[in-house]
Each structure stands twice: as structure tokens, then as C-alpha cells.
Amino acid sequence: MRPGAQAARTARGGALNARDDKQDGLRAEVSAYCARVGTDPLLVQGAGGNASWKNGDTMWVKASGTWLAEAQRTNIFVPVDLAHLRAAIAAGDMEVVPRALAGSALRPSIETLMHALMPQTVVMHLHAVEILAHLVRPDFAGPAPAPAPWCWVDYHKPGAALAGAIVARLREQPEAQIIFLQNHGVVIGGADVGEVETILTSLLACMRTEPVAPVAPTGAEASTMAKLTAISDEGIQQLALDPRLYKRLRKEWTLCPDHVVFLGAEAACYADAESFVAAQTMGDEARLAIIAGVGVYVAGDFGAARTAQLRCYYDILARQPSDAPLTTLTPPQLAELLDWDAERYRLAMAR
Ligand SMILES: [Zn+2]
After folding, report:
1. For residue 164, which of 96, 107, 211, 229 has the smallest C-alpha distance?
2. How far is the CA of 53 from the centre of ligand 1 (A)?
3. How far apart are CA 99 and CA 43, in angstroms?
4. Which residues neighbour 62 within 8 Å (Cβ) at sequence distance 6 or greater?
5. Tens of pLDDT along 27-48?
6. pLDDT at 3
7. SMART domains from the entry (predicted)?
8. Which pLDDT does position 65 carry in this prediction?
9. pLDDT for 312-332, tens place per residue?
């Protein structure tokens, strides 16, 4: 081998090692940050939210169904072909199926395109309560002061439709690093984890709302009904105990897509425990009962994911400073979200 070729090969090896080191460092930083935000229910609920980082033509993105809180305990990231996604986005193909690399068995998040279309190295998407509490109001004014350039995207079904809407908006505001998604959450892009964290911390500080004070339990009991268990979360119980929150949930149940997907398109309100048990006897598969003035009860195994969604819903309602109506998902948006045909939707709503 010629001496020059040997030197070039060594240099190339060094460059590759440097890139691998940078890659490992980035993975460790993103994982640590994800694990931190993932354990805060005001930032992440269950498997909600996702994160990504880009390295050359590869993007590492959270796998579908995995929990950010688990980022340091288990492998939640899947490498995908970024060049392939960028080519599809440039061609307007939002239905593109991401190509997982390195034979990963994990399936990339359904929000993968949302990460690929952001130009920044590190991207975080969260259903953060303090921000969501504003995103469900019809009079969203934006953060003051804004920690970075931001833009607003109207509600679209998560996946291809939402990605298409974000691409269109970023064409008008390519400098945006914060994207507010109506009734859904926030996307933040930064050069590194530190920048994303600084932006998020500023947003949370300037958009924070003091939750309403809790109402004392009335002492009414429904747990004597054999099939029911009270949810052991004081916030969730407020949905039944606080008349203002209860009034809201009857009209404004469909605030966020994850909430609807996990908890259904209608609030499970029952006049008393007997009517809930009677509904079950009639073949109703409902597992949740919100009983006005009494409490919130579940039948059987309700699960951590549903409980997290219900708590998030309470956290959003408790942060509404007035009785002004909130923006809810419309019947066509619900039908699209739940893949319901119009007839099934009509029947369900008529119940
Ligand atoms: Zn989301």
C-alpha cells in the first residue's frame, strides 16, 4: 500500500471514530433527558411524546408504543433512513413508510415524519400540560416572551395529515424552532439537547397556570358496589367532585387525540354506581364511571396508560382560568381519528 493511501485510511478511520463518539454522546444525552422528562406526568403521559436525533443520513427516533421514561433502562430508539424520508417529504409523499435500519425489530413512532421534517439535530415532541392548557383555548396568543421563533399548526390527525400541515407551515416560517400543535402538543428543535431543554424550560415558565384548588370529597361512596374501584388519584377524583370540571367534561371531553383514542369519544358519566353496573350488565364494555359528586370509578383492569390520559385531562381542565369554551375535536375529526365510518359514529353518538 502506498504511504499516502495508508495515511488517508487512518484519517478516515479517525473521522469515523469521532463520528461514532459524537453519536454515542448524543444518544446518552438524549436518553438521559428523555428519562427525566418521561417521569414527569405534566410533560409525558404513558407512551405519549417522542424524541429524535439526526446523524448524517440516519435519524434515531422513539419506537412506537415505548415510554420515554424507559430511555435509559431499555432501547427505545430505532434508526431510520433519513435521506429516504427527506426525499419523500420533498416529493410531497407524507404517507411514506419509514425504513428501519440495522434490522431493528422496533417500529418507528407514527410521528416519525414530524421529526424528519424538522431541520434541527435534536427534536422533542411532548404533550406538555402547561402548554396544552393553552393549545385548547380558541384565543391562543403564544408565549411571552418567546424563547425561540415559533409557529402554530391547526389540529390535524397525527401521522401523514399532521406532517403535511407542518411542512406547509415551515415553508412559510422556516426559522421556527417551536411548533404549537392545536389541541395536541409542542415540537421543539435544537442544535443539541441543551438548546431544546432551555427552550422547553422557558416555555413552561411563561405558560404556567395555577391549577384550581381541589374541592373536598362529599363522603358519598360508590365502592360498595362489588365491581367498582375508586381511582386512587386525587386529581382524577376532582373530575367528579368539582361541579365546574364536571360541567366542562360533559361538553368538552374531546380535547386531545390521545385522550380520545384511549378513553373514547364520550365522557363516561353515570348518575350513580347502580346505573353503571346496569349498563355493564346490558353488555356495555365500559370500564370507567364518572359519577357526579361521588367519584371516578373503574371496573376491572383500567391500566396505567388510560389512567395517565385521564390525569392529563384533569390537569388541563384544572388550568382553565375562566369558563370560556374550549376548542374540542369536531365530529368529523373524531370519526377520522377513531377510523369510524359515519354510521358507526352516528350510532355511538346517539347512545
Ligand atoms: Zn403527539
Report:
1. 96
2. 17
3. 29
4. 34, 49, 50, 51, 52, 68, 76, 77, 78, 109
5. 999 999 999 999 999 999 988 8
6. 47
7. Aldolase_II
8. 86
9. 999 999 999 888 999 999 999
Class of CATH domain 3-207: alpha beta
Assess contact for 192 and 124: CB atoms under 8 A: no
> Do 193 and 33 contact (CB within 8 A), yes or no?
yes
Domain range annotation of the chain: 3-207, 228-350
- Rounded-to-integer distance, Cα 323 and Cα 251, Å: 12
Cα→Cα distances 87→77, 82, 98, 112, 275, Å: 22, 9, 11, 14, 55
CA 158 / ligand 1 centre spacing (Å):
7
Confidence class for position 13, pLDDT limits 50, 70, 90 = low
Residue labelled with grid coordinates 410531497: 92
**C-alpha of residue 11 to centroid of ligand 1, in Å:** 42
> What is the whole-number distance in angstroms between the Cα of residue 111 and the centre of ligand 1?
7
Q: How far, in Å, is the centroid of ligand 1 from the Cα of 260?
A: 13
Q: Ligand 1: distance of its center to the CA of 43 in Å?
A: 11
| Beta-ladder partners of 79 | 60
Distance (Å) from CA 242 to ligand 1 centroid? 28
Query: Ligand 1 centroid vs 5 CA: distance in angstroms?
Result: 49
Residue 184 Cα to ligand 1 midpoint, Å, equals: 6
